[in-house]
């Protein structure tokens, strides 16, 4: 799997900025977070890491859903298998109703 997005932070105590951008050329900014969105630099960096990891996490979740569906087979709505929350997260992330209802 190739990393699709990266994040960078720079600045001083008075001015800080971070961006999430594509790895491939040409580089495109996905998200720009100035310091004052959240005063806490750690929170900004955590948000940027999560945004940068999003495409990779989605790829892994789709692969996991396909794999687990093959192993577990059909399940009933009342069961407590991992497929239900996984599919709900995929529906939320993609808007694709083939994974089920968005909860």
Count of DSSP-assigned helices: 2
How far apart the termini lie comes to 29 Å
Provide mean pLDDT, rounded: 79
Structural class from helices and strands? Answer: alpha+beta
Q: Indicate the radius of gyration in whole angstroms.
A: 18 Å
User: How many structural domains are formed by the residues?
Assistant: 1
- Low-confidence runs (pLDDT<50, min 5 residues)? none
| Major sheet summary line | 3 strands, antiparallel
**Molecular shape:** elongated
Question: Could you give the order of the helices and strands?
Answer: EEEHH
Helix content: 40-55%
Strand order of the largest sheet: 1-2-3
What percent of residues are in strands? 15-25%
Q: Compute the number of strand runs.
A: 3
Description:
With 103 residues, the protein is an alpha+beta fold. It has one domain. 43% of the residues lie in helices and 19% in strands. The protein contains 2 helices and 3 strands; from the N terminus they run E-E-E-H-H. Strands 1-2-3 form a 3-stranded antiparallel beta sheet, covered by helices on one side. A hairpin with a 4-residue loop joins strand 1 and strand 2. Helix 1 packs across helix 2. It is elongated.
């Amino acid at each position: 799997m190739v990393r699709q997005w990266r994040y960078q932070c720079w600045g001083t105590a008075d001015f800080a900025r971070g961006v999430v951008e594509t790895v491939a050329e040409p580089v495109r900014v996905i998200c720009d977070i100035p310091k004052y969105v959240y005063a806490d630099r750690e929170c900004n960096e955590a948000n940027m890491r999560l945004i940068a990891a999003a495409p990779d996490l989605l790829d892994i979740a789709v692969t996991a859903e396909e794999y687990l569906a093959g192993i577990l087979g059909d399940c009933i709505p009342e069961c407590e298998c991992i497929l239900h929350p996984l599919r709900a997260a995929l529906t939320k992330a993609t808007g694709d109703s083939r994974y089920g209802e968005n909860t």
